Amino acid sequence: MPHSQPIYREVAIHVVAWLCYINLQVLAVDQFGQQYTEHLLIALSELPAQLLFTYTTLYWLIPTYLLRLRYLYFSLLTLLVLAICGVLYWLGYYYLFLAPFDPGKLEQETPFDPSRLILSSFYMLCTSGLLIAFHMIRYGFRQQRLNQQLIIANQTVELKSLKDQINPHFLFNTLNNLYGLTSSNPEKAGEVVLRLSQLMQYMLYEGSQTRVPLREEIGYLQNYLALERIRYGQELHLAFHVSGDTAGVQVAPLLLLPFVENAFKHGLSRQLSEAWLQIQLTVNQNELIFKVENSKPVSTGQATSSGIGLPNVAKRLQLIYPDRHRLRQLDGVDSFLTTLTIELTPIDFTPTKGHENQVFTSRR
User: I need a surface site. Which of 28, 97, 129, 236 has the fewest CB within 10 A?
Assistant: First the structure.
């Protein structure tokens, strides 16, 4: 019975709430007058009407009309239920308490006194309203928690989907290069196989993590650039510069490569000669700055297009680094510059510390 415990727990909470309410009501009315039993009997005689109004409102009126924004129906039916329960409230006091326990007062009261009925309805609205408000606050917190869980689950699925989208052009071109190198340059073909296997291993294993060391992400970029260097050869001038304290920094995996892929796909691949790419990654005390600038033919106009790369990385940045990142793009006449700045917080660091200053260049 997997659902029994939550039901029993909910019933127990309601029972405890009503017991606390009755005791507080009796103590407030009694005020140390030594008439606790009499006031308790009065509270119990009025309780059925309060239960009817409270649970009719909670489990019918609110979910059926209020939560569905049918305010007019909710208001009219609430007034109707309140009037009916107000009558029952006074009749409960009249017949369940006065008649059996204090018959001497029956001559002073009438069962359907309009003033008594209105006062009973108002009093019941105030007292039951507190319990309804308590329940709605609990409902609001519970819905907020469920919404947060759904958001986290959706973000996890979306992040996995975004990370799983690989640029097929890069893999196709690399395999074509590998096929040609197997006969012309077997040693270089072996390097391609090794670096491609390292790329795939990183994507399969480290890519499934929430955070990875920045150095591993840099190694992933270097393997990618090495494969592209083999593909372009002398046609590409490449510089990759890393500076700052990167040893203890954690980043989301597979986050930086789409900017480099975009440079090749929409800029360098369309340029027949003198193509160049400059990448700079800098880490200071509380920021990671990643710059990618590439040449482009003047006639191409806009260097970027709406492929899956940059739109996906923009979505990932919103999910992983909300209000902690800035992404700027500058489309020049003969170059395109992308600058990503990420604000680093304690969660993005590990205790390990160290400095490194690396330059990865190729002008072949």
Answer: 28
Average pLDDT over the chain, rounded to whole?
80
For 205-262, write each residue's pLDDT tens digit: 787 788 899 999 999 999 989 888 888 777 788 899 999 988 889 998 888 888 988 8
Whole-number Å distance between alpha carbons of 315 and 205: 22
- Smallest Cα–Cα separation from 244: which of 361, 354, 360? 354
Q: Which residues contact 263 (CB under 8 A, 6 or more apart)?
A: 277, 292, 293, 294, 336, 338
Q: Is residue 4 pLDDT above 50, yes or no?
A: no
User: What are the domain boundaries of the chain?
Assistant: 4-156, 165-362
**Would you say the pTM of this structure is higher than 0.70?**
no
Please tell me the distance from the alpha carbon of residue 106 to that of residue 96, in angstroms, as a whole number: 12
Pick the CATH number of 165-362 from 3.40.50.300, 3.30.565.10, 3.20.20.70, 3.90.1150.10: 3.30.565.10
**Residue 124 and residue 52: Cα distance in Å, rounded?**
11
Amino acid type, 296? K
Burial 51-78 (b: 16+ CB within 10 A, else e): ebbbebbbeebbeebbeeeeeeebeebb
336 DSSP β-pair partners: 294, 331
Total length of the chain: 364
Residue with the larger pLDDT of the pair 278 and 333: 278
